[in-house]
Amino acid sequence: MSKPEYQKIEKKQAPNWKVKVHEIIFEADTKWGKFFDVVLLWAILLSVLAVILETVQAIEVNYGEALFVVEWVFTILFTIEYGLRIASVGKPYKYIFSFMGMVDLLSLIPTYLSLVVVGSHYLLVIRTIRLLRIFRILKLTRYVSEANVLKDALRASAVKITVFIGGVIVLVLIMGSIMYIVEGPENGFTSIPTSMYWTIVTITTVGYGDIAPLTTIGQTIASMIMLVGYGIIAVPTGIVTAQIAINKNNQRVSTQSCPECSREGHDANAVHCKYCGEALNQKSN
Predict the structure, then answer these.
(1) Could you give the number of structural domains in the chain?
(2) Alpha-carbon span 24 to 37, nearest angstrom
(3) Pair (51, 135) in one structural domain
């Protein structure tokens, strides 16, 4: 018996409720799946808004108890959702230790932690990261594909950018030392680390102004650093852009999630998961 045929048999043996729950919670290609994700997004926005409003003293005094109840209602609902996600996946640990799985878990912990540590529930703003699911809900597969291109480009550019940052650090050390010698403690450059801080602020064109060279030589060096800064800012962008051009591909991806490992990013015409080989759910309305 071939592997695809075996997988089809395994798929038929999966409990019907599990398949249905997976389609609704993980998929965005079905009517109910899209409806669920839209409701989920609104719930995330409202729960984060409740936490934000709770930090406003006037609102907290008048509506603090109501916001507290709202926060717990949303937390309980998200806890149920998290449990259903684990129950509907063939390999729960794959979802639990995935990026979105960790975000889903971390979005629940602050409320329960607030029972022990006062104020920790304000960390619930991490729930905003869950809004990344909007790409699936709106079926913006083009943007999902472009995101994969950018991710691959950043990964491929990591070594080049690391070398570049290393060069910048050396430059900052050298220029910081020179400025310490030229300006000295009497002009605010009290140490080499302080001078390096000034160099970083200057070379990135931030320019806080808390420290400034007063001598002619120091001002000349500062002007040179500023001009170099404009060129330095463009280098990482150029590295990533060039890598994007190399890795660019127009392959379309779907919004389907594997019912076994919960991974996404499959080709639009994919029948099986490219990560674990499990048969994908058939699209239905």
Answers:
(1) 2
(2) 8
(3) yes
Q: What is the block-wise mean pLDDT of the chain (285 residues), using blocks of 10 residues?
A: 48 70 80 84 84 83 88 90 90 85 82 75 66 55 61 80 89 94 92 94 88 93 91 80 66 68 72 79 56
* Host domain of residue 83: 3-139
User: Where among 104, 139, 174 does a domain terminate?
Assistant: 139
pTM flag (> 0.70): no
Distance between CA atoms of residues 8 and 220, nearest Å: 73
- CB-CB contact of 22 with 281 (8 Å): yes
Please state whether 196 falls in left (phi above 0), alpha (psi between -120 and 50) or beta. Answer: alpha
Q: Which residues contact 182 (CB under 8 A, 6 or more apart)?
A: 213, 215, 217, 218, 221
The single-letter DSSP state of residue 30 is S
- How far is residue 48's CA from residue 35's CA, in Å, rounded to a whole number? 20
Please say which residue of 114, 139, 164 terminates a domain.
139
Same domain, 158 and 93: no
